[in-house]
Design brief:
This protein is α+β, with helices and mostly antiparallel strands and about 425 residues long. The chain folds into three domains: about 70 residues, Jelly Rolls; about 200 residues, Rossmann fold, CATH 3.40.50; about 150 residues, no CATH class. It is built from eight helices and 27 strands. It is elongated and about 80 Å long.
Length: about 425
């Protein structure tokens, strides 16, 4: 359908939708929209198209998509003021963007990136939001070097991704901070002089504030921008002020797109499917790859150990190997251990026993990496065939040497079916400790 936008008005489009400029001049987050290009608005996203002159667009709407025309610009005046302050700095700039969920962090980061790019800066955008990733699949930290203005960071090609393997930072604070520091260093090596770090929405509560303080101390940004107006951020602002951080407050847009938990989950699932497009099941010998992370096995079975466990457990043992500090024992799915069997294990072995149940690995999201640990893509574990010594992975990556397992579990359609707690995939038997 055709839609006219008068000069000074804005078309707000909620995806999934596609918009093509037919005539006139429009901008989105400071990016000029070229008549030869389509603006793709993904599900759960809202993009504002501001008319600089009387314009006309062609709109294709997907299921549950919508649009409206409003007067004026939805971009708060404080965004322009904040951007001018940041751009007045003559040195290399690092900007950390903070705010609660659905406060406009990604939109502001996009706007600032476009303004800086238009001013001639070499802009790097770093995505630090594990749960609502813009660059890369959920559970990753992403870096992209901008080559032209953008309307949605999810359309960017990642220049580097770091797999964390979970959608919330609470239990992986040090990994997130270390990962973001690594991406900043990489951006600098790639020649960037203007780095924007878009952070996650965990900002309320003592643990969240402590995390953000640790993060900001480590990143040492030139400016920390707080999206103000949604959530209680006074404690965060005061804490950063105590740390002598150069804090800039800017407004949350009135027309921000609000997303409930189910919508955010659906967005993540769409991204899983995007990064698993054209995937198929690939079978690889266990001893060809390094399998680590949440689920760890070397693929070097010990037949003698297995026979000893078979005698103790009456055939429940499927696989057994010696690790550096324990014995890894795989039991048949649904098997249980009685007190007498535990006692016999304690008597027979003087090292910890790490017990894994066959099939517990199914659906785990994994990072597929090269021999140096560089991210190549994602997959999900279909199964481990202990008898043949192979692991089957659903992925579109054909050549990899490391399989790093995360804590997200997906079904065969790419839907989230759970997040695994740390250590939940195994039982650790030790003398003096009864699980």
């Amino acid at each position: 359908m055709r839609q006219k936008i008068e000069r000074g008005k804005t078309l707000l489009v909620d995806g999934p939708a596609c918009v093509a400029l037919h005539s006139g001049t429009v901008i989105a987050f400071g990016a000029n929209i070229n008549a030869k290009k389509h603006v793709i608005v993904r599900f759960g996203k809202r993009i504002p198209l501001e008319a600089l002159e009387d314009s006309e667009v062609e709109i294709l709407l997907g299921d549950k998509a919508s649009y409206e025309v409003i007067d004026g610009s939805p971009i708060p005046p404080s965004w322009e003021e904040t951007s001018e302050k940041i751009l007045s700095s003559n040195d290399k700039v690092k900007v950390a963007v903070l705010g609660s969920t659905d406060s406009g962090k990604s939109s502001f980061s996009t706007y600032l990136a476009n303004i800086a790019l238009n001013k001639g800066h070499r802009v790097a955008l770093i995505d630090g939001d594990l749960g609502q990733s813009d660059i890369g699949p959920p559970g990753t930290l992403g870096l992209s070097i901008l080559k032209e203005p953008i309307t949605d960071p999810s359309n960017l090609q990642p220049d580097h991704l770091i797999f964390i393997g979970i959608t919330s930072p609470q239990s992986v604070v040090s990994k997130v901070i270390g990962g973001l520091m690594g991406l900043i260093n990489r951006a600098l090596r790639m020649g960037s002089d203007f780095i924007i770090i878009n952070t996650d929405g965990w900002v309320e509560g003592e643990d969240a504030i402590n995390y953000k303080r640790q993060l900001i101390r480590a990143l040492n940004p030139t400016f920390a921008v707080i999206l103000w107006g949604k959530g209680n951020l006074t404690s965060l602002m005061n804490s950063l002020a105590e740390d002598k951080v150069n804090v800039l407050l800017t407004d949350t847009p009135e027309k921000i797109k609000k997303r409930d938990r189910e919508t955010r989950k659906a967005i993540r699932e769409g991204l899983y499917r995007k990064y698993l497009r054209d995937a198929k099941i690939r079978s690889v010998p266990l001893n060809w790859v390094k399998l680590d992370g949440t689920f760890t096995i070397r693929g070097k079975p010990d037949p003698n150990l297995k026979r000893r466990f078979e005698e103790i457990l009456n055939g429940k043992a499927v696989y057994c190997e010696s690790a550096q500090d324990c014995i890894v024992l795989v039991l048949r799915s649904g098997a249980t251990l009685g007190d007498e069997e535990k006692s016999r294990i304690f008597t027979a072995f003087n090292v910890p026993i790490k017990i894994i149940f066959e099939g517990s690995e199914r659906g785990l999201l994994v990072s597929l990496e090269d021999e140096e640990g560089r991210f190549l893509g994602i997959g999900t574990i279909y199964c481990i065939d202990y008898e043949r010594g192979t692991i089957k992975i659903y992925t579109n990556i054909s050549d990899f040497l490391r399989v790093h397992t995360g804590r997200i579990r997906l079904d065969e359609k790419g839907n989230e079916i759970g997040v695994i707690e740390e250590g939940a995939l195994y039982i650790l038997l030790q003398k003096g400790i009864t699980p």
